[in-house]
Amino acid sequence: xxxxxxxxxxxxxxxxxxxxxxxxxxxxxxxxxxxxxxxxxxxxxxxxxxxxxxxxxxxxxxxxxxxxxxxxxxxxxxxxxxxxxxxxxxxxxxxxxxxxxxxxxxxxxxxxxxxxxxxxxxxxxxxxxxxxxxxxxxxxxxxxxxxxxxxxxxxxxxxxxxxxxxxxxxxxxxxxxxxxxxxxxxxxxxxxxxxxxxxxxxxxxxxxxxxxxxxxxxxxxxxxxxxxxxxxxxxxxxxxxxxxxxxxxxxxxxxxxxxxxxxxxxxxxxxxxxxxxxxxxxxxxxxxxxxxxxxxxxxxxxxxxxxxxxxxxxxxxxxxxxxxxxxxxxxxxxxxxxxxxxxxxxxxxxxxxxxxxxxxxxxxxxxxxxxxxxxxxxxxxxxxxxxxxxxxxxxxxxxxxxxxxxxxxxxxxxxxxxxxxxxxxxxxxxxxxxxxxxxxxx
Length: 442
What we know:
The protein is of the alpha/beta class.
């Protein structure tokens, strides 16, 4: 169904898509143009697309379309990096070939933020069911407030996510352009509450925090146009655009999240004894990003099973030197172990997003995890952070990766295994586990 509305406070402009929809480039450009037109007389826009880690979101193509349609009214493009490393010139060209390079601005999560408000500890305790009890700073990049823009265009993909349940919408502002304290506290809230209680859910404690933060920030920030996509895999393996949603409200997110749940969550009848996940070297060069292989399959893994992660591009653990050091120091341990380490160690307590990541990257001792990296990370390094190591070339041969299809395969030796060609595109779970992890009511 295609629905058009008029851009005003709290309004969905376009909602379009289904499990079987394939949106063409021509349709997409029409939707983008109509969404921008609905904003009215906007003279200065800043676009917030994702970075290279969401290459398949279609956000790069959408940003190019915005640059073409808006022309000189588009004054800046700032990839919503969060804690990720800045994009290189080559990555910017690959993802946004049609956007003038002079428009790009970098977000520095440690230095470029301003505080817009603060949510009190009682609210955070209430929405987290008393899991944590600290206040939360509503933070965003200074450019969003001080540069005189008439509108923010926030672009991104709605897909199951380990920190918030379903990615995007207000997360793109408060994590994508947020600061250290906000990112630390939101990530640790999700980890402490329980990733598996939230994955694939639109309504979670972290989402409640972001929605409340948006209420406080909206009078300070320029009006925000949300452009949200849902991407799925066709039967022939192609990645296709299944949904497009735009608006100035929260409902456009919930509508996109509903479709994403239908498109991006694979619910299996039985758990996976052996899973093999491929990490595209152009997207995944750290375990900070590559551990989506763990997050997105953990609910599908059998007790005593084995997860093998093929990571030819792996070069480091963290996305910056400080977090890389903490990962190397503490390793991927169980939730109980990491929470104790937070209690006992000031360096980890002062970097709660790193602590959350360590919890997320653990199997909680339910199954084994083996990393098969390229030449940039050694066996000793892999084992030092709590993972098993595997030889990449041997694993590629053993599982005939060049012939593998998404889903169930039979290895040349006769062993069945489940193959995930890109963990960023979905969530894999069993029907039983997913049914046992209801999210809070909205």
